Amino acid sequence: xxxxxxxxxxxxxxxxxxxxxxxxxxxxxxxxxxxxxxxxxxxxxxxxxxxxxxxxxxxxxxxxxxxxxxxxxxxxxxxxxxxxxxxxxxxxxxxxxxxxxxxxxxxxxxxxxxxxxxxxxxxxxxxxxxxxxxxxxxxxxxxxxxxxxxxxxxxxxxxxxxxxxxxxxxxxxxxxxxxxxxxxxxxxxxxxxxxxxxxxxxxxxxxxxxxxxx
Length: 214
Fold this sequence. Notes:
By secondary structure, this protein is of the alpha/beta class. It is built from eight helices and five strands; from the N terminus they run βαβααβααβααβα. The chain has a single domain, classed as 3-Layer(aba) Sandwich (Rossmann fold).
C-alpha cells in the first residue's frame, strides 16, 4: 500500500537561504501533520541539518562557530558525514516505523553553499552526497525562495561564520538553490515572501500536490 503525506512514512525537506523561514515553516508543517495524526506527537519526526544527533551537533559547532578557517571542501565532507549519520540513526528508523519526517536542510544546501557559492561545483557535491548520504532520499524538497536582502532583514544580522560571508555570497547561494530546483523533479520552489501563514499555505499546497500525484 502506498503511503500518503501526513499519514505516515513520508520524508519532506525545507531548504533555502539563511533567514528564509525554514525553521518556522518546518514547525508549522510538523504541527499540521501532528493534528492530522490526531494529536500524536510521535507521528512526526522534526530534525535539522547539521544537528539532531551528537555527530551533527558537533559538526554544527565546528562549521558555524569554530575558530578554524575551513574551506568549502572540508565543509562539504563534514556535512556529508553528519547527514549520513542522521539518515542512519534517526530518519531511516522513523520512516520504517511509519512516521513522517520533516528535515531542515539537505542536499540543496550543500549544492548551493559549498558547490555553487563555495566554488566546488554542484555536481561534484552531489556525487559525494549521492554515494554516501542519499539513502533514504526525500520524497519532496521545498526550496523557500526569498531575496537575500529580505532574508537578512528577517534574521536581523549575522549570527554564524557562514551568514557572515556577506550579501554577495548569499546571492550566489540563492542562485545555487534555483539551479538545484530546476534540474530535479522532487524539488519545488516555494515563494517565501509575505507572512508566515501565507508561506505555510504555499507549503501545504506543494505537499498536497505531491500526495495527489501518487
